[in-house]
Specification:
The protein has about 230 residues and is an all-alpha fold. Helix content is about 65%, strand content about 0%. The longest helix is centred in the N-terminal third of the chain and has 45 residues. One of its GO terms (biological process) is negative regulation of signal transduction.
Length: about 230
């Protein structure tokens, strides 16, 4: 029987190249994952670099949350003490009014203080022709049935206010404003004085801000000692 390699010489050529071809493919397979891993590692380093360059990422997010009555220690304990003397005292100071408004947002009842503020602004109108458009806006926003920020008024008060809308006067919303004022004074104000953020102000503390700042510094200084200065290019 004749040698099959003599009949099919291409088999000899293929066989002679099997081993180097296998080595070449094996080498390519090993190199490919290595190349694919580089962009992923570089992206991680880039993200880390961005975080290190933006310390506000660690300490700024909590400032706008409703639970904090002030963005910083801008209210002294002495000033906060005065807020507890009376509800009038709290609303007469801008910082106190702002703090109480933020507290009501946590209770989903901020429409009460917004209505009270709108009434105060209404009574400051300098001419009679300003009453009608302002009164209409207040009535449609806070008083009429299914108003977007409807306040809790008894039927009689709502009816009296509604009847005066044809020719509004400076005193048009006095009864409604007094009702909402008493509601806040007797219900929301005592809870405000017992709230943790207000008690923190009395002690001269700004809750949560200082600890977050210290953790940020520790993260950038201690945990990354020895890291090359240029984290984005290796």
């Amino acid at each position: 029987m004749e040698n099959p390699l003599l009949l099919f010489p291409q088999l000899n050529i293929s066989a002679s190249k099997d081993k180097p071809y296998y080595k070449l493919m094996k080498s390519a397979i090993k190199e490919e994952p290595h190349k694919a891993s580089k962009p992923g590692a570089k992206q991680k380093r880039n993200r880390l670099s961005l975080l290190l360059q933006k310390p506000e990422f660690h300490e700024g997010d909590h400032l706008g949350k409703p639970g904090n009555l002030t963005k910083a220690a801008s209210v002294s304990p002495e000033e906060a003490v005065k807020w507890g003397e009376s509800f009038d005292k709290l609303l007469s100071e801008k910082a106190g009014l702002d703090a109480f408004r933020k507290f009501l947002k946590t209770e989903f009842s901020e429409e009460n203080i917004e209505f009270w503020i709108a009434c105060e602004d209404y009574k400051k109108s300098k001419s009679a022709h300003e009453f009608l458009p302002k009164a209409k806006t207040i009535f449609e926003t806070f008083i009429q049935k299914d108003a977007p920020k409807e306040v809790n008024l008894d039927f009689h008060t709502k009816e009296v206010t509604s009847q005066s809308m044809g020719q509004p006067l400076r005193s048009t919303f006095d009864a409604a404003q007094s009702t909402v004022y008493r509601l806040m004074e007797q219900d929301s104000y005592p809870r405000f004085l017992r709230s943790a953020p207000y008690l923190s102000l009395l002690q001269g503390r700004a809750p949560a801000r200082a600890p977050l700042r210290r953790r940020s510094r520790s993260f950038t200084v201690s945990d990354f000692k020895g890291v090359r200065p240029d984290l984005t290019v290796w």
